[in-house]
Amino acid sequence: MERTLVSLLCLGAVYLRMKRRRRRSKWVHTVLRNRRLHGEFHRLVQELRLDDAWFQHYFRLDKSQFDDLLTKVAPRMHRMDTNYRRAICPAERLAACLRYLATGDSFRTIAYSYRVGHSTVCGIVTEVARAIWDCLVEEFMPVPTTEDWRAIAADFSQRWNFPNCLGSIDGKHVVIQAPNNSGSLFYNYKGTFSVVLLAVVDAKYCFRVVDVGAYGRTSDGGTLANSTFGQALRDGTLSIPEDTQLPGAAYLGPQPHVFVGDEAFPLCRDLMRPFPGVNLSPRNRVFNYRLSHARLIVENTFGILSSQWRMYRQVIGIRPANVEACVKATCVLHNYLRRSTRTRREPVAVSAGEMSVLQDIRRVGSNNAAREAIHVRETYASYFSAEGAVPWQPMA
Prior knowledge:
Mean pLDDT: 87
Strand content: 5-15%
Oligomer: single chain
Helix content: 40-55%
Strand order of the largest sheet: 3-2-1-6-7
């Protein structure tokens, strides 16, 4: 009898909840039905096609780049019409995603302007971002081969006077809204919540390796150690070229190819960081100056990325997994634009005074390193103060 009474009470509660639930008054809202007449893609975007500069300001891509990108990703975004509604075309899906990446506006703002549902925009942005990464990564951010590493080292030697350099490495905190039930995992030292973008950049401001999704509380060194790139660097499976003699210093013997980073990274045979401390010898100050000159390439690249895609200027209020998809999409689009744009402005070189200020900003880090790594850094320091000296460096 009691069980029957409890069951009846439960059924009654469910019935009352269903009765109180607001019934859906319209299958598709009247405003959304007029999408093809008054939606931003069907009106404003088509007018912007008449002006190249305005179109590029709107999407960060010119018309030819937009159309070329559409041909690459359209097969991944095509949807079939149904008896109830017409599908959103791939071009409109791509436009909504690029608009979000370019402005960082909320999904609801884009939903109103494009006259689609809020949840629809959320699904479109994530889906298109993943499609952009999958369709472009093999062509514009492939895994570097030995020949690729040699070409990068040649560019660093020619453009930035750092021989045997394979890339500049650093981490960027992408600010996000605190995920539910995440505790302090995403809370970083800057007092915000973030995921980390770890990147290796070549001498031409292009991303060569990216790792996205590490917790904001993790240091750059810890992010490197936990990343696939860091594990490959530690295991020696990166296809790094064999040791090569430094120009004009055959007596020093073959030296390893290295990545350059700041004080947050550990000193390794294949990864150079500055000498720690303030009262340094002239020789060590020259090394820090030359290393900072090459390392700032990744800082400049992050600046280009965040100025091009204003998503990075906002607090991103989506799930970390979707943030990862958007960040990877902007990185591969950055390479796509760098290699397909004919004219572009190179970042201004840092002056000697600015470089000295940057060198005074130091973070405390561990100074534990293997003897081989210490020997490699000492060799580079000696080289930069002798055969490898350049007129614009500080006097040793």
